[in-house]
Amino acid sequence: MKIYKEIVRKLDNELDILEIEIDEVLVKAERGIQLTKKALKQMRHFVVDKGFPSKENEILFFKKLKPRVYCKLIYYVKLFNIEEKRPRGSTKSQIKYLNCYIDKHQAYLNNNLDFYHYYRRDATTFDEQYFLRGKADLRLFPDTFHFFADEQFSTSHDRMVATILAYDLLIVHLKQGIDKLENNGICSKNKDLHKNPRIIWTAHKIYLVELIYALHSTDVINNGAVDIKDIAYFVERVFKVDLGDYYRAFLEIRMRKKGRAKFLDALKENLEKRMDETDN
Known about the structure:
Elements: H1 2-21, H2 25-50, H3 55-84, H4 91-111, H5 113-120, H6 127-131, H7 158-182, H8 186-189, H9 205-217, H10 228-239, H11 246-254, H12 262-279
Helix pairs in contact: 1-2, 1-3, 2-3, 3-7, 4-7, 9-10, 9-11
């Protein structure tokens, strides 16, 4: 499985650079489509040529590895179509347009809620039916015809996993777009945050995102009567940092296999260590 994990790792790095270096969303989406198609083509070549040494490896590939790449292709294709047709009129019309797509993608997740929960819980009961090639039963899964298009590189549900992951990303992108429209001028102000720095955040930004969501989840600011974007903007100003797409960053935190509260665990560990050292 090493070769597949390396393809995923390389693609993630390329897309991270893409997100940082390119601001124009349509250009970004086109380049993202090119990169993900290339990665999928490489994966398919190895799958068809080498196969899998065990059922467990095949399930791992179609449940976890292929969807991590395929979801990015779906994401960038959808992103391009949405942004290309986005109205250039009033803020109100743009917000309405983006909310429409949020509702549309959320409806898909709601309509497939059982499988959504199955995947998010990392359940395994039906993995052989869902993620082994040639195992689909059309009497059970009548809407999964897509895998017939490429039986050598598809199972009945790998596309559904990829679609769920892609729609999660799209909803995050659309909500961020609405935030920018509703807080006109805030994003441009963030460019000035690095002027005359005094106290600055020097750790990974994702740790700060983890802290922000922890504060929001425990209702310790304004007794909970505050939006996540308001906390994020306040923290950005205090620590002279631009958090960028913090919704997407939180989605990545949620998807961690282990140690989802990694930074908070480290805070607790280091604080207790300091207390122990002071006591001695």
